[in-house]
From TrEMBL:
PROSITE patterns in alphabetical order: CNMP_BINDING_3 (PS50042)
Transmembrane portions of the chain: none
InterPro entries the record matches: cNMP-bd_dom, cNMP-bd_dom_sf, RmlC-like_jellyroll
Record protein name field: Crp/Fnr family transcriptional regulator
Domain Cyclic nucleotide-binding residue range list: 14-120
Length: 179
């Protein structure tokens, strides 16, 4: 988060709540409307959806990142996915009304938010293309190259679902990759 946004957050301290939650806390359930956005001070969070009874992870968030189902948060429509903590987490939690108040009164806030949404869109497009074009081995190699911290902080079953493979296949790929 850039310096001017951090100053805005401190200036509006009474508009958000700092919370601590245990691992596997559901922050937003698929099908519910997002009423809050979160900024991660400590910990990890994943976004996933129910795919015919299986959880499919599609994004991970860590310290210094914001997370919400922005489509739902902005429009009031039900979320297409669940947001859940990966580990114990310390978060800043803000309601839509208070978020909008800060956005409307802080120069540069909306531009920074637009950039964050644009970066998320790029991430989704890259993931989409990789799922279609690349082999599981290539997807794993891209993850190792682009986001190695995920391999250190995320349970393997979530990484496997993120890559679109089974945990057994991930294990085989990891073994070959390490040789």
């Amino acid at each position: 988060m850039n310096q001017s946004l951090l100053i805005a957050w401190e200036q509006y301290r009474d508009l958000y709540e700092e919370i601590s939650v245990p691992a596997r806390t559901i922050l937003l359930e698929e099908g519910k409307v997002a009423r809050y956005a979160y900024y991660i001070r400590e910990g990890g969070v994943r976004a996933w959806f129910n795919n015919k009874g299986k959880e499919t992870s599609f994004q991970f968030f860590f310290e210094g990142e914001g997370v919400s189902a922005m489509e739902s948060f902005r429009t009031g429509q039900p979320s297409m996915y669940t947001i859940e903590t990966l580990s114990a987490a310390r978060l800043l939690k803000i309601s839509k009304e208070n978020f909008d108040l800060i956005a409307d009164s802080t120069p540069g806030f909306k531009a920074a938010l637009e950039e964050a949404v644009f970066q998320r869109l790029l991430h989704y497009r890259k993931l989409f293309v990789c799922q279609i074009r690349d082999t599981p081995q290539e997807r794993y190699a891209t993850l190792v190259a682009d986001q190695p911290h995920i391999l250190q902080r995320v349970p393997l079953q979530y990484i496997a679902s993120y890559l679109g493979i089974t945990p057994v296949s991930l294990s085989r790929i990891r073994n070959k990759f390490q040789k």
